[in-house]
Amino acid sequence: MDSFEFNKIAAAVLVTALLFIGIKEIGNFVYKVDKPKKSAYKIEGVADNTKTTNEKVKIEEKLASIKPLLASASIESGAKVFKKCAACHSIDKGGANKIGPALWGVVNRKIGGVQGFKYSTAMAKYGKNWSFEELNGFLHKPMKYIKGTKMGFIGLKKDKDRANVIAYMNSKSDTPIPVK
Ligand code: HEC
Asked: I want to staple 163 with a disulfide (CB 3.0 to 4.6 A). Which of 4, 14, 69, 177 is the partner?
């Protein structure tokens, strides 16, 4: 084999190697996938754990005050919305705790305040009262608003539904708070 022949073979080997590496690199480049920050599909009823605390803050900031909506809320429509809650909650006077605590007179009641109901630590230690705004935030996204709550409910997306159901709960009390 003369040196020319050898050079030809060496060059061929080199080119093949380069091609191989090159294709791999191009492959990496072309197929580089940016992982989405959020899951693309939201499954009803399943908590989305991919959101960061920052995003939680954003959700809360986005929620406008419920007060203006309460003034025009419908207690009758709220009773219909409450059907979603009734599997777990009683609302009438003297109603018992079910999967969730009894809700008669819940507006302005201490959060986690029903005697004899075994609350999650998160709710038991929350330490505020159920103001209209607290109810609004919690019912929007329960598991985000009070992290660690055992209320396994996805939440009420529509402002109107929350306003109506809050108005309904407010009416189910010895001392409803005037909203108009
Ligand atoms: C799958 C059962 C379930 C459904 C449905 C449900 N809840 Fe609850 N709820 C619970 C449980 C359990 C708790 C106690 C949470 C804890 O201890 O963290 C709770 C707690 C609450 C509290 C706090 C009460 C207190 O004494 O501090 C309110 C208010 C409430 N729910 C309202 C609602 C409303 C309104 C709906 C419907 C829109 C609803 N819940 C739907 C199970 C449910």
From this structure: 69
